[in-house]
Amino acid sequence: MKALKKIATSLIILALAAVPAFAGQQGESSGILTWLFLGFIGLIVVGQLIPALVMGFGMVKGVLGHSDDHSHKHNA
Fold this sequence. Notes:
This protein is mostly helical. The chain is built from 2 helices and no strands. The protein has helices at 2-23, 32-64. It starts with a helix and ends in a 12-residue tail after the last helix. The model has no long low-confidence stretch (mean pLDDT 79). Keywords: Membrane, Signal, Transmembrane, Transmembrane helix. The chain crosses the membrane at residues 33-54.
């Protein structure tokens, strides 16, 4: 979990450091509809990413966790 936190923190820092590189570009300004569209796409990506991460952590937990041996035979 600490490794995931370190990776997320470093990605945020790198993203913030890249912002001034784009500040020097001059061009047409994007309209509000463009930003709304990009925000909507971002919500879709995050909405798909959260369940995938939860399922991935569940699979890793299931593989690395202890297993109860339920293979003994029942005498009825």
